[in-house]
Amino acid sequence: xxxxxxxxxxxxxxxxxxxxxxxxxxxxxxxxxxxxxxxxxxxxxxxxxxxxxxxxxxxxxxxxxxxxxxxxxxxxxxxxxxxxxxxxxxxxxxxxxxxxxxxxxxxxxxxxxxxxxxxxxxxxxxxxxxxxxxxxxxxxxxxxxxxxxxxxxxxxxxxxxxxxxxxx
Length: 168
What we know:
The chain has one domain: Up-down Bundle (Four Helix Bundle (Hemerythrin (Met), subunit A)), CATH 1.20.120. Helix 2 crosses helix 4 and helix 4 packs across helix 5. It has 6 helices and 3 strands; from the N terminus they run H-H-H-H-E-E-E-H-H. It has a 3-stranded antiparallel β-sheet with strand order 1-2-3. The radius of gyration is 16 Å and the shape is globular. It is mainly α and about 170 residues long. Strand 1 and strand 2 form a beta hairpin.
């Protein structure tokens, strides 16, 4: 019998970012906050801000590497899932160096988190196995879900995951 993982979940962190902002406005917000962090206001460097930066990085990655335009609207969900599918084959063939794989996973996790906040709501929670999103009383371990999506392919698609979370 396999070992059980003891998952420790922190308290939900109230969102400080206005997710009703456009992608461009979120980018400006991120840049302004990071300028403040670089000027000594390190208390502004939060998990939420980090994940927004990762999300914006994923949008850039999708556009530049996969030639796919995505945003945080629900109409982009299938394209987001398709980008993760495009990463699946090279990962299986060992053509994706470990550091590149984890960079993609981190940025995709940030994207999925911001996507969920914009379309469903929620809050970030810190856990000992990575960031999660708290939706109502459920913790969605999105980092793990992104990893499974890339490793397992279409059988662990993000679309059904999102639809399950949305219906809660």
